[in-house]
Predict the 3D structure of the following.
Amino acid sequence: MKHKIQINHFLSLIFLFGLILNGLAQTLNPSSISTNGSVKTIVQDNSTIYLGGNFSAAGYKATGIAKINSNSLSEIGFPSVQGQCFSTVQDGSGGWFVGGSFSVQGLSNLIHILANNTIDVSFAPNPNSTVNALYLDGTTLYVGGGFSQISGQTQNRLAAIDASTGVLQNWNPNPDGGVNSITKDANIVYVGGSFQNIGGRQSRNLAAVDATTGLANPFISASSTVTSVEQDATNLYLGGGFSGANGYYTGATSLLTTATDLPDFSFPIISGSITKSISDGSGGWYVGGSFSIQGLSNLIHILANNTIDVSFAPNPNSTVNALYLDGSTLYVGGGFSQISGQAQNRLAAIDASTGFIQNWNPNPDGGVNSITKDANIVYIGGSFQNVGGRQSRNLAAVDATTGLANPFISASSTVTSVEQDATNLYLGGGFSGANGYYT
């Protein structure tokens, strides 16, 4: 029995030694077939190997990127990366520029793979975050994504670099959101993404940027994210999550003429809500609402040359709903409690040139929505119960000199509009009656 046990141990050692030799003889080839699950059995029949197991695909292993040859096989020796690739473009010499979110051989997010399937380690722009878009134009490679640094310099989300050296070029549209797609036609670089401002202009999610200056040209905007911008000889094709891409971005104000269908692109772009605008009588405009621009709030004066008069700074502290210009006096109504640096509730008269407040204070106890004037009477509509020292519901006739309210009919609910012609006053709002004096 003792001899039998020794023989069994000896045979076991021979078997294990054979396994080790067999394992050494079959060292794993990195370019060999891989599967996406476990392999349970391997059977060879002459030159054919049969695999069985818990997998659904088998082929040459490729991580992040792959080069598929004419036989529909992944090319052996093509580089793999640790991460994801989102954009590739040919270099015109049999190689590829590859962008994404990855690292390989000390490089990050953007690499140049040469025609011999090696990575050009001298090309090292190394953007500090994801690259989503690439476009090659001669010796210039346009790069878009979510990065804030590339080629060792600060540059937000869109850059032009030398396609050979990776050196950053002097071109900086500086979009304020991610770039997903790039194409180019003549001297215009078309950019799609998720941004509101680019190239010194407000342009939502789609832009046409000058390839020389980096400034954005007037162009249509998209209502939401643009993920793809492609072109043929005559058309630009867009893809994304938007529901509309058919208007020029003008912000909350726009100046149109009868001579063209296009807005005046020199007119100020205001982000916010505009409730009322009136002519200043000299080619300019007073604009009221809920917004801020150039350090001013809720009420501005746009001059005839389309610049904002920054010296006109009443800056009411809340929404302006109503404006009426009478000579050198601008009547202002809304929801504010302060204007021109002084406490004044919801209705004020200010100097139309300087914005200084005048000595006139009807002090309504609710919001003012509309203003008009006839002779020495200022008619106002809104949502109030008291104004000018008198109970007057939602509609009032206020003396333009004293600020006191005259007896006048009331409205049963909110008045949103008060207009007049030579003989009549026209009201609009949510009321069901406006035919009695408030008693």
